[in-house]
Amino acid sequence: MATDSTFPVDGILPKKETGADSFISKYPDYDGDGVLIAILDTGVDPGAPGLQTTPNGKNKIVDLIDATGSGDVDTSTVVEAQDGVITGLTGRKLQVPESWNNPSGRYHIGVKVLFELYPKGLKDRITKERREALWDPQQRRVLAETTKQLENFNNKVGNSELVNKGIKEDLQAKVDILSNLEKKYSDCGPVVDCIVFNDGDTWRACIDTSENGVLQRCTVLASYREEQQFARLNNADMLNYSVNIHNDGNILEICANIGSHGTHVACITAGYFPDKPERNGIAPGAQIVGIKIGDSRIGSMETGSALVRAMIKVIEMKCDLINFSYGEGAHWTNGGRVCKILSETVTKHGVIYVASAGNNGPALSTVGTPGGTTHAIIGVGAHVSPAMMAAEYSLREMLPSMHYTWSSRGPSHDGALGVCISAPGGAIASVPNWTLRGSQLMNGTSMSSPNACGSIGLILSALKANNIPYSPHSVRRALENTGKHVEGVEVFALGHGMLQVEKAYEYLCKHARCNEDYLEFIVHCNGSKKGIYIREPGLQGRPIENTVTVEPKFMEDKAEQKEKIDLCLQLRLICSESWVHCPQHLELMNTARSFSISVNPCGLPIGVHYTEVRGYDCHCPDKGPVFRVPITVIVPERVLDEKNYLVSYKNVSFKPGQIQRHFIQVPLGATSAALKIQSQDSEKNCRMLLHCMQISPQSIYKKHEFEKFVTITDNGETVQAFSVLVKVTLEVCIAKWWANLGTVLLDYSVIFYGNGLDVVKPVMHAADSITRYNIRNFLKHEEAQPSVTLKTLVQPVRPIESKIVCLEGSRDRLPDNRQIYSIELTYNFNQAKQGEVTPDCPFLSNLLYESEYESQLWMLYDSNKQFIAGGDAYPNQYTVKLEKGDYTIKFQIRHEKKESLEKLKDLVLLLHSKLASNLNLDIYNTWQGAINGGKKTSTMNVRKGSINPIFLTPLPDDNVFILFSSGVFDSQFQSLNIFNFCFRLPKGVLAGQYLSGTITLSKDDAYKKGVTYPFKYVLTESPKKSNNKKKEKEKEKEKTKEEEYNEAYLDLQSSWIANIENGLYEEVIDKHPDHIPLYLSRIQALEANKEEVNYKEIIEICNKIRSKLDENSILQYMGIKTDASSDSSSVKTDMEKKKGYLIDCVVKLGIAQCEIYTKHSTGTTSSSVDSSSSEDIKLDDITQTYNILLKYIDINDQKVIPFTIKYYTILKHYGRVIKLINKQIEDKGGNKEQDIKLKECYAELGWDHCKILSDDWILVKYMPNYRLF
C-alpha cells in the first residue's frame, strides 16, 4: 500500500489562515524586522529554541523584566570582604574571586529561596528528584538500621531496669521520628546567597548557585538590557534566569519564568528557526521584550502593579506592539485604574495592544478584560482550521473550519462587539528548557492573540520600511475592514473576521496619509456605552430611540493645530437591516456630534440579531467604515406552559462544534431552573458543554452563570439545576465539543421552579434568638425542605500599623513624573488550632482591572517571618492551611494619588476560617415549636401564592456557648414567655464575628444548587464565667490592710530582684528567709546573666528551697484520693503551691547540674565554676534529680522538658531529645534555637540527610526580613 510520508507542517504553527506565510514569501524583508514586541506573560525563557536571534543576527530578546516583584531580593545589607571572604546572610563564607573588580570594596548581600522562583511543574519535579537522590536512600538505610537495633534490644535485654527502659524509649523514639519524617517530608529547596556590587562601570550580581560559597563557579551578570546575558541555576532544574539591579544595588530582581505559557506565546509571535523555517513564529524578524506579569507568589496570577510596571517599561523602550494573553472577567467595561493606564499606552503613546478575548464561551457576553471589554485593545478570538486538526490534534476525521467551543463570545455588556478579529488559536511551539521538552501543544485565545500580534508585526515591519504613517487606530480599522468572513462562524465569535495580513497592509498603503491616520472615533451610545444592546424582556415590543455620539480624537503630539481646524469628514451612514433606522449623512469636524438611531425589534423572530450602523467617507467609500455602531437585539421566547413552566426541544441534532442557543424570558416568580438532557443515540457517548447565562448591570458575567462540561452516555441523561433572576433573559447554550466526532440527537428541556425566600441575603443575629423567614412561590405548587448549613467562621481584623510609602525607582514612575505611592497595612491574628484560612478584603475583592486602585497584594507570614502564602483580588483562589500559632499579614495597595491611600488606613480584612465540621440550624414551622423544641420542619408543601413561615433557632447546646435571654409577647395569652439558649462556639470567637454558609430550600439533592441563598449568622459576646469561690473566700480569715500592704510590698520586691543587682536580694531574704518566691526570683536573675551563669549558686539556692519544703508531706497529700476535711480547699491550694515551687526548684537544679556536668566533661569549665564544684556533679546526681521529678510530674510536661532535654543529651539519647523538642514545637510553636538543636541531634545520630534538610529549613523559616512587595 502506498503511503503519504508528508507531514502537514502548515498546521503546527498556523500561518496560512491569516496569509502570514504568503506575505513573507512575497515580502521576505518585512518579516517583523524593526518591530519591538512586548510579551506580557509568565516570563520568557531566553534559552528556549527559536528565541536567540533574528534572521539578520540581532538578539531576539532585547530585555527581560519581572514586573511582579516576586523575584526581588532585598540586598540593602552592605558588607566588606575580610581576607577575600564575605559572610552571606545564610551564614556561609563566600569566597570572592580575584577576577572580580569592585573599586569600593562594598558588597550588597541578600538571600533567596530558589523554590520561590520555580514554576509549580518544575518544583514538583525537582522535589521528587532531590528526594530520590538526597533523602530516600539514606532514609531507608537509617530506618532499617534503627528498627533492627530496637528489635535486637527487645530480644536481648529485659525492660525492668530504668536504664534499659530509657535505652528502649530512645530507640523507639528514633524509629517513630524517622517514620514521622518520612510521612511529613517537605523540601523547601535550595537557599542561596545573592551578591551585588559595582565594578566601576555598572552594577553586577552573582547568585551562589554552588550553595557552598565557591563564587568562582558562579555566573556574574549585569542587568539584562545592558549585555543580554543570562545563566542557568543548575543542570538539574534547567531554569534560565537573568537579573536587573535597582535602587543603587539595594534591590536585585531575579527574572525567571513562572510557567511555559509566556515562552510558548513568544515563540508563536516571533520565534526564529534557521534550520526549520516551518517552525518559525509569525514574525521571525521581530525582537522581543519579555515582561513577566504573572506573580509566582500567587500561582502566576497577574497583578495590577505588574501591569502598570509593564506599561512603564513598554513606554520607556518604545515598543511597537504588546501581546497580552491574560485576562479576567470584569464587572464593568472600560473602567478602572489599570484599564485606564493600559488605554493611555495606546492612545497617548501609540502602542498597539493585542489581547486574548477569553476562553469562557460559548455563551454570549463572556469576553474577558481587557481584551474584550477595553475599547483601546484589540481582542482576538480563537479559530481552528482543518490543517491544525490534522497536525496538532491528530483527528481521524477532518472537520470544517470553526471556532473553538470555549472561545469567548461578544457582545460586551456595554454593547461593543467584544471580539475584534480572530486568528488560529492553537500551536505547537517552544517551551522553557526546564520542561525538558523542546515544544508543546497549547490552545486558547492565549495562542490566537500572539498569532494576530505577530501578523500585525509583519504589517508594521512593512509600513516602517516604507515610511508609511500609521497609528493604533488606523491599524485597527485596517484589520477590521479587511477581515475574512468564515462560513458558519457567528459574528460574536469571529469579530470582524479572520485577520488577513496582506489585505490589511495593502489597505494601509492605499489609504495612507488620509485625514484619519491618527484619529480615533469614539462612539458613545445612550451615555457611555459602546453599542446598542437590547436583551431584556419588555424592550422588544416597541421602537427604541438611541442617542449616538461620535467624537473624533487626535493622538497626542501627532496632529498640528491646523489639521484639527481643517478636519471635516462628510460621512454616509448605512445599515443593512430594515429594523434599524438612522440618518443618511453626518458631517464630522473636531468635536463630538450626536444623532439618533431607532431600533424596532417588533416582528423580529426569537433569537439573537446583529447589525451595525457604519459610517463611510463619502469621498472614499472603498476604504470601508471609519466607525461602526454595533447593534445587538435578543428576542427571548416566553414560557407558554403556565402549569409546569416547561420549555422542551426534541430531536435536536449536534455536529462537532455545533451550538444551539435558546433565549428564554424567565417567568415572573421563578427562582431556579433545571436543564435536563437526554441522548437519543444508542451507540456512542457525546461530550457537551452546557452554558447558561444571565447578565445584570455592573456585575461580572460569572455572577449569574452556570457552566458544566458533561459526557452523556448512549441513551443517558443529565440534570443540572441553577438559580435564575426573574424577568431577566436566560441564555441556554448547548454545544457539542469541537473535537468530539460524530453526530448525536438530543432531547432537552428547561423547567422553572418558584420556591424562594422573601429576602435575597438572609442574615440572622444570634441575639435575636428565633428568626423568621417566609418561603413563597408565585409560580406553582412545590415541595420544600429548608436547611441551613454553616461552613465558615469569619473574623474581621483591623490593621495594627499602616504606612504610606513613596515607591523608589523608575519602574514605579509613570510618564510625566507621576510617582506611584503604596500603603502597607499590617494585620496580626492568632490561629487557635490547625485549619484553613482565606484572607479577604471586601472593599477591593473581585476587582482587578476595573478597580479604582492600582493593585492589592497580601503576603502571610508566621511569627518567624517565614512566608506562607500570598493572594490578591480574588480571595476564593487563595485558601491557606495553617498550623496553630501567631501570624502576620502584610497588605499593599498602590495608587499615584496619596490622598486616595489615606482613606484606607483602617481598612478591615476578613479572615474566613473553615469549620472542622459543618453546623446546622434547627428549623421549625411555628414560633411555638421553636420555643418549645417541638417537631422540626421536614418536607413542606408550598402552594402557589401562599406565605409559609419558617423559624430558625440559634445553634444547639453542643455547638455554641452563648447565653441568650429573650422576651416574646404572646398576643393570644397576653403573657410574656422568657426562654434561654446556650451554645458553644469555636475557641477564640469574639463579638463581631459571624458564621457564613447557605440556606437551601430544595428537597432533592440534584436541585439544591438551584435554590441556594448565602446565609450569615452574626455572633454575640460570650458570657463571663461566674466565680463560684466567693463562699470559700468568705471562710478565709480577713486580712488587715497592713497585712495586705506587707504582702504586696514583698511581692513587688520579689519581682524586682531579677532587675536590681545592688543587694536587694540579700536585704529581703534576711527579713523573709522562708519566702520561696524570693529564691526563685534570685535564680531567675542568675539565669539572665548574659556573661556567665553562676550554676553553683543556683544549686545552692535550689537546695535551700528543698530544705524549706516538706517533700514527704507533699507526696503524702498527692497520695490522698479524697480529702473530706473542712479546710480541704485551702489545704489543696497550699499543697499545690508548694508542689509547684518544688517542681520549679528541681527543674532549675537539674538544669544547673547538667550545665556544670557538660562543661566539665567537654573541658569548657569557666572560672566562675571551680573545678571542685564541677567534679562534685556526677551523672548519678542528675539521675537522682530526674527520679525526684518522676514522683511529682509527667516527665514530658512543658515545665520539665528544658531539663529532660539536657539530661537526655548527656545520656546521648538523641531520639528522646528530638521527641521532646518536637513536642515543644507542637504545643507552643518553634524557634530557631530548637531547630538548631534538632539539627545537632541529627548530626550526632549520623542522620546526614535530616541535617541537610534541616539546614535549608532553618534558613527558610527564620528570614531576617519580610519579603519585598
From TrEMBL:
Residues 778-959 form the Tripeptidyl peptidase II second Ig-like domain. Keywords: Aminopeptidase, Hydrolase, Protease, Serine protease. Its EC number is 3.4.14.10. GO terms for cellular component: cytosol. Residues 654-742 form the Tripeptidyl-peptidase II galactose-binding domain. It catalyses: Release of an N-terminal tripeptide from a polypeptide. PROSITE patterns: SUBTILASE (PS51892), SUBTILASE_SER (PS00138). The keyword Protease applies. Residues 1033-1091 form the Tripeptidyl peptidase II C-terminal domain. GO terms for molecular function: aminopeptidase activity; serine-type endopeptidase activity; tripeptidyl-peptidase activity. The active site is at 41 (charge relay system), 261 (charge relay system), 446 (charge relay system). The keyword Hydrolase applies. It is an enzyme of class 3 (hydrolase). Residues 520-634 form the Tripeptidyl-peptidase II first Ig-like domain. One of its GO terms (biological process) is proteolysis. Residues 32-497 form the Peptidase S8/S53 domain. It holds the Pfam family Peptidase_S8. Belongs to the peptidase S8 family. PANTHER family: PEPTIDASE S8, TRIPEPTIDYL-PEPTIDASE 2. This is Tripeptidyl-peptidase 2.
